[in-house]
Amino acid sequence: MDGFEANAGVIIIAATNRPDVLDPALLRPGRFDRQITVNNPDVMGRDKILKVHIKKIKVSPKFDSKIIARGTPGFSGADLANLVNEAALLAARKNKRMVTLDDFESAKDKVMMGAEKRSMVMSEDEKKLTAYHEAGHAVATLHSPASDPIHKATIIPRGRALGMVMRLPEKDQLSMRKDQMKAHLLIATGGRIAEEMIFGKDKITNGAASDIQMVTNLSKKMITEWGMSEKLGRLRYNSDSEEVFLGHSVAQSKNLSDSTAKLIDEEVRSLAEEAENNCRKILQDNIEELHIVAKGLLEYETLSGDEIKDLIKGIKPTRDDFDNDINTPKKPATSVPKTGGSATAPAN
Q: How would you class 251 by CB atoms within 10 Å of its CB: exposed for 0-12, middle for 13-18, buried for 19 or more?
């Protein structure tokens, strides 16, 4: 890039999504000395981008782009355009006159978690167990003030999971508080605890595998990286280092004494056990809510956060479906067969 005069009128522009692998020589003064970081849009930006793209399609009057914007953190403009196209395709396959919020939710779920496995056959016992697993997560969420509000619970198989509970943040977050982390730990233990409470210890399943992994990883980071242990202090104990260039393996080195490693294990276990004990008390104190939400999931398969709250109050949900001929409420067709073989994918 040498040899250009000041009045040559040549501007060199480059872009990358991996600035960590660039040669430092490119970034020194005289080279690419001006760097502009373009982040993914925040919730307000996503809302405005969605409004631009939905002008090309006919959407339901009840559609609220803010709900989709809140539920798509980290999405780029191209991702949102793809989401709108996917929602329009789903509506077209159903011969709808307009695209509804349900179509956008289905498109978002497909993009984030994979397509629904409508061909997966679940027995009644598996459906019931999955419903109580997800109800455990849902009730734990409702009684965790520091948690993000619950957005949706479903027992429709999707991806590798038999069901899921989705929470949405009220706004984009750049950092996470300790009480929020503890809420995440508590909610993650809700599925396994609900299984154990309702069906007994011998009937628990491998559905909590991803929950256990999340609890383990988050607890370790709280202790070893973020200085959230009084016994270990404000020190970093995670010594893993990764090469910046692709293709290189992760190098690990041990610089901890055996006593420190043992203390770390004890602190991680203490966090996990605290979350489990608190969650168990919540579910025991609100066992009726657990039964109500589980029965609601068995009947409706998918419930929004507001519908879960209404069910607990004794109000049954109503479903609107814009058909190609009439605009009357219509109960969605079941996507989880009631009888047949078994499934082994985990429920989250």
A: exposed
Distance CA(23)–CA(39), nearest Å, equals 22
- 134 is a catalytic site residue: yes
Which of 36 and 193 is assigned the larger pLDDT?
A: 193
What is the value of pTM for the model shown?
A: 0.73
Per DSSP, what are the bridge partners of residue 166? 152
Q: Which residue is catalytic, options 105, 126, 134, 307?
A: 134
The answer to whether 136 and 198 are in contact (CB under 8 A) is no
How far is Cα of residue 217 from the mean position of the Cα atoms in its chain? 16
**Region for residue 233 given its phi and psi (left: phi exceeds 0; alpha: psi -120 to 50; beta: otherwise):** left
pLDDT at site 325: 39
Strand order through the sheet with 164-167:
164-167, 150-154, 302-304
Q: For residues 302 and 2, what is the distance between their CA atoms, to the nearest angstrom?
A: 62
Is the distance from CB of 156 to CB of 179 less than 8 angstroms? no
- Confidence band for 343, pLDDT divided at 50, 70 and 90: very low
Phi and psi torsions of 152, nearest 5°: -160, 145
- For residue 314, CA distances in Å to 151, 210, 292, 308 come to 19, 32, 9, 10
Per-residue pLDDT tens digits for 249-297: 444 455 688 889 899 999 999 999 999 999 999 999 999 999 999 999 9
Place of tokens 């027992």: 155
